[in-house]
Amino acid sequence: MAPRPKTRERIVQASLELFNAQGERSVTTNHIAAHLEISPGNLYYHFRNKQAIIAELFAQYETQVDRFLRLPKGRALTVDDKTFYLEALLAAMWHYRFLHRDLEHLLESDDELAERYRLFAQRCLTNAQAIYQGFVDAGILLMTPAQIEALTLNGWIIMTSWVRFLCTTRGPSADLSEEMLRRGIYQVLALESGYIAPQARAAVDAVFQRLYVPLGEVTGTSLQAEAAEA
Questions:
Q1: Comparing 4 with 136, which gets the higher pLDDT?
Q2: CA 127, CA 60: separation in Å to the nearest integer?
Q3: Does the keyword DNA-binding apply (predicted)?
Q4: Which residues contact residue 177 at a Cβ distance below 8 angstroms, ignoring those fewer than 6 apart?
Q5: Which of 31, 192, 194, 198 minimizes the number of CB atoms within 10 Å of its CB?
């Protein structure tokens, strides 16, 4: 039988589940303690406040992204690597989706977290540019350094704002699904469409098909039906 998780780990996991399900603003430390059937004092023994729990969760998210958003050592990139990066981004976004939903509020509420996020964003942009350059060097993408820079920034904007886009189109209390986030990853891939080398087109098109989610499933409406009514 696996050992029971320690109280600190249980607090972090329960907080993540509640933040993702209800939104960080709707969850208090008392809610977390009640969910775990522990006293608020027991929770405060491990975390002095909710901001400390959020900082712990961000550190986990940051570590997860840093672990995969890097060039492989000793070999050229392949189209399979493109699938790996996109699926890894999707997994991180889904697992820590509350961070993306409440990002501006979280950063405004915690100056230390805001500084950590700023450094994290700079690191992600630098690493993503290196990865795009790796795809150029491997003959998968045809891009200039200026195009790589622009694509990296546009991709970052989509990734960091996609959950909030979903909340504005479906309503702030709507349940999100992994498929809805998958369409956001597809949007990032779509930015590359005009830069794919001819010899890589077939393989990349297969990735497009794997990630595609109809927009109606994302927004909750049928665009074809709306066009017909118009």
A1: 136
A2: 18
A3: yes
A4: none
A5: 198
> Nearest CA to 165 among 107, 97, 105, 64?
97
Considering the four listed CATH numbers 1.10.357.10, 1.10.260.40, 3.30.750.24, 1.20.1070.10, the one that applies to the domain covering 54-229 is 1.10.357.10
The residue assigned the tokens 């406040």 is 49
Report pLDDT digits (tens) over 108-145: 999 999 999 999 999 999 999 999 999 999 999 999 99
> Could you tell me the two tokens for 71?
């060039």
Four-point Cα dihedral 155, 158, 185, 94, nearest 10:
120
Predicted confidence (pLDDT) per residue in 174-187, tens digit: 788 899 999 999 99
Class of domain 7-46: mainly alpha
The single-letter code of the amino acid at 86 is L
Task: Tell me phi and psi for residue 141, to 5 degrees.
Answer: -120, 150
CB 191 within 8 A of CB 151: yes
Task: Kindly tell me if the per-residue pLDDT of 52 is higher than 70.
Answer: yes
In the chain, alpha helices (H): 7-22, 29-36, 40-46, 50-68, 79-95, 97-101, 103-109, 111-137, 145-170, 178-190, 201-211, 215-219, 223-229
Residue 15 one-letter amino acid: S
- What's the rounded Cα separation, in Å, for the pair 180 and 5? 31
